């Protein structure tokens, strides 16, 4: 990046930064119409029980099929949607689609045990006054039990959260919705603070599982995860691990007592039919 070296030098443009800014601007202005035109879609990634390997549910992950740029991941547009406020209607759409999908899985599954659905919430949705009512309405309209829904909130969104911010989450938790603390371990939250939060699941960030790619794993990583799991369990929290890419990782994490896992080792995020197949194979052995 060029910097002015004093005097009357020209600022040299950084063409890459300019291109990024132009794309960002273009994407931002295209977002509202994209929602109206139905350019967003959701992929589902299975959540697998580490004890018996069964599929217990899935996390909904939104994508944008952009007419010029192709499929864009959430990291490209969620921050823009948060900035403009579009995240509220977009998030509501994701919740509605995901709840409908979970209901459809349950119907096709019969007695195979209910598949649960995890949906990510951004901090702006947390502070939006309609969150609880919207969620209640969607669950009712689609006919899904509150117990089958888990809302994921990042650790950083809840750092220093006051009671006003936690109130809607408490209401949802009282209804039976699980609240998961996503990307746990990347923020700086005080562990004792966990007791104050209406959270029932810790999702351990992928950075922890990365240290377990090799066998034997990094002993320090093992100790840290072991400590977190025992703390979580003593607080009655279940532990889900993200980013499991190898069988060795899965095995280590199972031994360490983690409850549920998610990652490419089991399946990449994919279309809803894929989850149905995985769960069905699993249910019929
Ligand atoms: P997240 O909630 O932590 O989701 C997990 C991310 O890890 C996903 O990235 C997933 O595709 C990726 N992943 C899963 N397994 C593996 C693995 O084994 N290895 C590696 N390297 N990666 C793996 P994705 O889909 O790009 O989503 C990124 C983030 O975008 C999510 O992180 C979540 O914070 C956010 N996001 C996604 N959908 C939504 C949404 O509907 N609303 C909001 N507010 N945020 C969303
Ligand atoms: Mg998540
Ligand atoms: Mg996560
Ligand atoms: Mg993560």
TrEMBL record:
User: Looking at the record's lineage, which domain of life comes first?
Assistant: Bacteria
**Domain EAL, residue spans:** 24-283
Q: What is this protein called?
A: Cyclic Di-GMP phosphodiesterase RmdA
Please spell out the taxonomic lineage of the organism that makes this protein: Bacteria, Bacillati, Actinomycetota, Actinomycetes, Kitasatosporales
Positions spanned in the full protein: 427 to 711 of 711
């Amino acid at each position: 990046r060029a910097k002015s070296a004093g005097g009357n030098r020209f600022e040299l443009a950084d063409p890459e930064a300019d291109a990024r800014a132009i794309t960002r601007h273009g994407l931002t202005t295209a977002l509202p119409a994209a929602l109206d035109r139905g350019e967003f879609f959701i992929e589902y990634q299975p959540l697998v029980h580490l004890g018996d390997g069964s599929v217990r549910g899935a996390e909904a992950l939104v994508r944008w099929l952009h007419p010029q740029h192709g499929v864009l991941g959430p990291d490209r547009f969620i921050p823009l949607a948060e900035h403009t406020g579009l995240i509220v209607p977009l998030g509501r759409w994701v919740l509605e689609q995901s709840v409908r999908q979970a209901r459809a899985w349950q119907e096709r599954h019969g007695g195979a045990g209910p598949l649960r659905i995890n949906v990510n919430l951004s901090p702006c949705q947390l502070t939006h006054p309609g969150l609880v009512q919207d969620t209640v309405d969607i669950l009712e309209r689609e006919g899904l039990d509150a117990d089958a829904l888990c809302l994921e909130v990042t650790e950083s969104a809840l750092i220093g959260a006051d009671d006003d911010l936690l109130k809607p989450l408490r209401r949802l938790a009282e209804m039976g919705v699980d609240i998961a603390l996503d990307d746990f371990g990347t923020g700086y939250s005080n562990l004792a603070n966990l007791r104050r939060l209406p959270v029932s699941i810790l999702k351990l960030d992928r950075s922890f599982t990365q240290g377990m790619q090799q066998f034997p794993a990094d002993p320090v990583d093992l100790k840290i995860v072991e400590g977190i799991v025992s703390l979580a369990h003593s607080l009655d929290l279940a532990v889900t691990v993200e980013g499991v890419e190898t069988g060795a990782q899965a095995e280590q994490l199972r031994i360490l007592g983690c409850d549920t896992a998610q990652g490419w080792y089991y399946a990449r995020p994919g279309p809803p039919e894929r989850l149905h197949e995985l769960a069905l194979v699993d249910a019929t052995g």
